[in-house]
Amino acid sequence: MERGAGTPIRITGTGAYLPEAVLTNVELQVRTGLRDEWILSRSGVRERRVAGKEEAASDLGLAAARRALEEAGCPPEALDLLVVATVTPDTLCPSTACWIQARLGAPRALPFDVSASSAGFLVALSVARQYLRSGAARRALVVAAEVVTRYVDWSDRENCFLWGDGAAAAVLEAGPGPGAALLALTLHADGQQADRLLLPGGGSRVAPITARTVETGAHAIRMHGHQVYRSSVRRLVEACREVLGEVDLPLEAVSLLVPHQANLRIIEAVAARLPLPMDRVIVTIGSTGNCSGASLPLTFDAARREGRLRPGDIALLAAFGGGLIWGAGLVRM
């Protein structure tokens, strides 16, 4: 058994932030030529939020973090750990977590980023849980913040309509007390499929940035949609069943499936194969698009705010992203 594995880990507050600017399918049609009805049928997306010119990942993350801390009744000074999940950081160095720590006023919190694409929130949760279980931290803040639209090739008619910007956060505390219990987490990866969903530019493989790398689209998201679809559905179903098995819970105990909002087709396929009826699945992609790592916590926060999750309910969280990395988690409200 892991050291401290019996220590209860609680989510005591969540918060979300979406930029003000809305880009609808109708507006996107002017830029891309893609019709509203076609986008909706392919993805379930009607509109997405777009960060302002002066907004970076830390700006979105800071707003979400403040809301989560306020709900938790936790002052920033009490935080021991700050983990940010992002693939669209403010800067490669320092981490986005450092920028948020400074502006939040959390001098005791150890800040660092994790990069796990759309599975980033689950990975960050897992890291924070280990710190709390070990006793190295008592209170942790997990933030997922993405400004994905800065990395979209608007001429890529297969994927450009999917993406949106946003952030969400959760406060985790160790020990008994009020809040939602984090019951279990499972994570997996297959790096041999890394080229199926990637952002080539910005790292040491494609450096320095030149006119040529910009012209060739090296700094835009690339995704092999059909391959990702097949892998994601199968892997998400497996992860959901695995995490339920870890705590001996039947599928019938799940009150609500809270999936990463990658694509409505993927969400519906996962629900059908588990199986779970769609009235026990929350779908928000229509108004947010795919916000990468921020998608899952945005949806979890929405489920709480909309009354889809009540005390005692079991939420099944599931996400899949570039890496490829996938996983699932269980939360008792």
Short description:
With 333 residues, the chain is an alpha+beta fold. The chain is built from ten helices and 13 strands.
Walk me through this protein's architecture:
With 333 residues, the chain is of the alpha+beta class. The chain is globular. The model has no long low-confidence stretch (mean pLDDT 94). The strands form three sheets. The protein has a nine-stranded mixed β-sheet, with helices on both faces. Strands 2-3 form a two-stranded antiparallel sheet. Strands 9-10 form a two-stranded antiparallel ribbon. The protein has two domains: 9-179, Thiolase/Chalcone synthase (Peroxisomal Thiolase, Chain A, domain 1, 3-Layer(aba) Sandwich); 182-332, Peroxisomal Thiolase, Chain A, domain 1, CATH 3.40.47. 32% of the residues lie in helices and 24% in strands. The protein has helices at 25-32, 36-43, 57-72, 96-104, 120-134, 211-215, 225-246, 264-273, 285-288, 295-305; strands at residues 9-17, 21-24, 47-50, 81-85, 110-114, 139-147, 165-174, 180-189, 197-198, 222-223, 256-259, 314-321, 325-332. The chain has ten helices and 13 strands.
